Amino acid sequence: MIAGCGTATVEHQHDNFKQVMDRQVGKGIDDPDAYPVFYRLRELNSKSLPNGNLQQQYAVGRDGRCKVYFEVEPRARRIVRWFSEGSDRDCVLTRNP
Asked: What is the C-alpha separation between 23 and 40, in angstroms, rounded?
C-alpha cells in the first residue's frame, strides 16, 4: 500500500514537471519567467541543429540528474519544443533546480 502511494507521488511530480516544461514553449529563452532564467540554471551545452535552431541543455531535478533540452528558434529566441532525459523520479520540480 505504501509503495503504491509513493509511485503515485512520483507520477504526480513528474506530471507537474511536464506541465511546467510544456508551458515554456512559446516563451523567449531570455524572458524573466522562462524556467532557465527564473531559476538561474547553468547551461551545460548548446548546439546547432540541422533545421537552424539551437538546442540548449540544462541539468535540473533531483541532484541535477535530469537533463532538459530546449530547442530555440535563434532569430526570435523563442522556445519551440523541449524534451528531457532522466527517470520520472529525477525529472521533477525541486526548490533549487
From this structure: 18
C-beta of residue 67 within 8 angstroms of C-beta of residue 73: no
Determine the Cα–Cα distance for residues 1 and 47; give it in Å rounded to an integer.
45
pTM for this prediction: 0.87
- Could you give phi then psi for residue 32, rounded to 5 degrees? -60, -30
Note whether 46 and 54 are within 8 A (CB). Answer: yes
Amino acid found at 6: G
E-assigned strands of 21-89? Answer: 43-48, 54-60, 66-73, 78-85
Q: Which residues partner with 46 through β-bridges?
A: 56
The length of the chain is: 97
d(CA 62, CA 36): 16
Residues 29, 31, 20, 61: what is their CA dihedral angle, to the nearest 10 degrees? 70
DSSP 22: H
Q: Where residue 62 falls among pLDDT bands split at 50, 70, 90?
A: confident
